Amino acid sequence: MYRAKERGRNALAYFEPAMQEAVAERYALDRELREAVRERSFELYLQSQVNGDGKVIGAEALVRWRHPQRGLVMPARFIPLAEDSGLIVPMGEWVLHEVCLLIARLDAEGRGLRIAVNVSPRQFHQADFVQRIKEILAATGADPTYLTLEITENLLIEHASESVARMTELGALGLRFSIDDFGTGYSSLAYLKRLPVSELKIDKSFVQDIPHDPNDVALVETILSMAHHLHFDVVAEGVENEAQFAFLRQQGCERFQGYYFHRPLEMRAWIEKLPPAG
Question: Which CATH number fits domain 45-273: 3.20.20.450, 1.10.1740.10, 3.30.1330.10, 3.40.630.30?
Answer without folding.
Answer: 3.20.20.450
